[in-house]
Design goal:
Layout (H helix, E strand, L loop, with lengths): L5 H4 L6 E2 L2 H4 L7 E2 L3 H8 L14 E3 L2 E3 L7 H9 L3 H11 L3 H7 L3 H4 L12 H14 L15 E5 L3 H13 L2 E5 L8 H5 L7 H13 L3 E3 L10 H7 L2 E4 L19 E3 H15 L13 E5 L3 H12 L4 E6 L25 H10 L4 E3 L1 E8 L5 E13 L6 E5 L5 E4 L2 E4 L8 H7 L23 E3 L2 H4 L4 H20 L5
Parallel strand pairs: 5-6, 5-8, 6-7, 8-18, 9-17, 10-11, 10-17, 11-12
Antiparallel strand pairs: 1-2, 3-4, 13-14, 14-15, 14-16
């Protein structure tokens, strides 16, 4: 512990966010980091608890509490408080392959579990993590470290999202020869095209991928395994195959008028925008027209919020965001105590921007679409919305979501983005490899294991556990690497 009374002596500080009115003018990251001196003081707020829930990383009350990577948070908080940034970097790298990603996009499960929450504000763990990794890059401490010895074993990783990259990184450092196959035109998967630039600028991904290339990892883009790259070839040429293709099967909504033009899955919309931004700075005309359009986002999660922020940057005339669930409370309920994840209402950057620009929160709770109405050209122009309520089924005791009779109303819309989550892995991949899937279409394994029903085929990430967080994907990539290494070598030191 740097300073035993630091949590009482120092106030929590965060990076400064550029004002919504300014940041919506571009797709750049909009947080201004703390100075190095301020960051060190924030490290001094850590209590070095006897039981540090911040690094616990287990499920409590059905939700994760603490860091899934079991980051050594008290250790590197103490090190940055004492100004020992290089040692802090070494401790951070011990558990996290990609702190530059998690320090930007993670919802900070660690901070929610921080003991300081009991009587005050948590330690700024996410900010500290960002400060450490960027210090490493700025000072030339992040350099390629290719393995000194190769094992002669070859591994194919299918998918270059966070789980695939983490598995590739771990196994390459072990000395195996790793090739990553990506169906898109660029490496990164969810990180590249599922997360907008203002949350994660893509040069951050490129910086890490360049290091991995220099360390010996091979990357193949435009390789859609299961269609133009046959699994039989991979099974013949490689000693192990890891499926890390994500939960990329979007959940649709089945209502009359769904076939109208101007209705897109959120993941497709975000991909088109990011690809156009990278290829032409949005000048190629390959994204749906948004300027002066009335946009409706269906889904209240992170992806829905990303659609709100993206649409605002593209000049939407208005944005509404539908949420089937009721608004969460503003403060913790008595049955949601620390260190459980706080089930409270969160206003994210996209909603903040909508409030600043349009004067109101875009979210409409307990509401869904009942019908889409198209114009004479087949373009969506209106949506029939209906209020929802929860009713108890007297026979089963379950609470069901029901329409409120007579609550229908019509909303003018020009563009609809469906962000209703994902159903699991895509069928053409699982069928091509002949692996078993569970009831949610995720690839099935024994509990706590990563080996599929097919010999020498393994699975990790959202394709295994279902739609989840980047930090969980990295954890899965690290864990599957241990399983694969033991399979190939008879033991593992990962």
């Amino acid at each position: 512990m740097g300073k035993p009374t630091g949590f009482m002596d120092f106030e929590r500080q965060n990076s400064t966010a550029i004002a919504p009115e300014e940041r919506i003018k571009n797709f750049d990251e909009f947080h201004i980091p703390l100075s190095r001196e301020c960051q060190q003081i924030q490290g001094g707020r850590c209590m070095d608890c006897g039981v540090p829930f911040c690094q616990y990383g287990q499920m409590i009350g059905g939700m994760a509490s603490g860091c899934p990577l079991n980051n050594l948070i008290p250790e590197w908080n103490d090190l940055i408080y004492s100004g020992n940034w290089e040692r802090a970097l070494k401790r951070l790298k011990k558990t996290n392959n990609f702190p530059e990603f998690t320090s930007r996009v993670c919802p900070a499960l660690c901070e929610a579990a921080c003991t300081c929450n009991i009587n005050g504000l948590p330690v700024s763990v996410k900010e500290n993590e960002h400060g450490i990794i960027e210090y490493g890059y700025e000072n030339g401490l992040i350099q390629p470290e290719p393995p000194k010895v190769r094992t002669g074993k070859r591994i194919a990783v299918i998918g270059s999202g966070p789980s695939g990259l983490a598995a590739a990184d771990q196994l390459n450092h072990r000395g195996h020869q790793v090739t990553v196959f990506e169906r898109s035109d660029r490496i990164g998967g969810l990180l590249r095209y599922g997360i907008p630039n203002m949350k994660l600028e893509k040069q951050v991904i490129d910086r890490r991928v360049d290091i991995m290339k220099a360390e010996g990892v091979e990357f193949v883009t435009g390789a859609n395994v299961g269609i133009d790259v046959k699994p039989a070839r991979l099974m013949r040429e490689y000693d192990a195959v890891i499926l890390a293709c994500g939960a990329s099967n979007p959940r649709d909504i089945k209502v009359p008028g769904r076939e109208s033009k101007g209705i897109y899955f959120a993941v497709d919309y975000l991909t088109m925008v990011t690809k156009s931004l990278l290829n032409s700075n949005l000048q190629d005309g390959k994204i749906p027209a948004v300027k002066d359009k009335k946009v409706m986002v269906i889904g209240g999660g992170d992806t829905g919020n990303d659609c709100v922020g993206t649409s605002i940057r593209l000049g939407a005339a208005s944005v509404i965001q539908l949420e089937m669930m009721p608004k969460a409370p503003d403060t913790r309920a008595d049955d949601n105590p620390w260190p459980e994840w706080p089930k409270i209402c969160k206003t994210d950057y996209g909603q903040e921007e909508s409030i600043a620009l349009f004067g109101h929160d875009p979210r409409v709770y307990q509401t869904t679409v009942k019908e889409f109405i198209g114009d004479e050209k087949g373009n969506v122009c209106k949506a029939v919305l209906v209020r929802l309520e929860f009713k108890k089924d007297e026979e089963t005791g379950r609470m069901n979501i029901c329409e409120v009779p007579g609550s229908e109303y019509i909303e003018d819309v020009d563009l609809v983005l469906i962000a209703a989550g994902f159903l699991g892995s895509q069928e053409y991949v699982t069928k091509a490899f002949g692996v078993d899937v569970d009831g949610r279409s995720n690839v099935a394994t024994a509990p706590g294991d990563y080996k599929t029903s097919k010999e020498k085929v393994f699975v990790a990430g959202d394709m295994h556990r279902g739609q989840s967080l980047v930090v969980w994907a990295i954890r899965e990539g690290r864990d599957v690497s241990k399983t694969v290494d033991k399979y190939l070598m008879g033991y593992t030191n990962l």
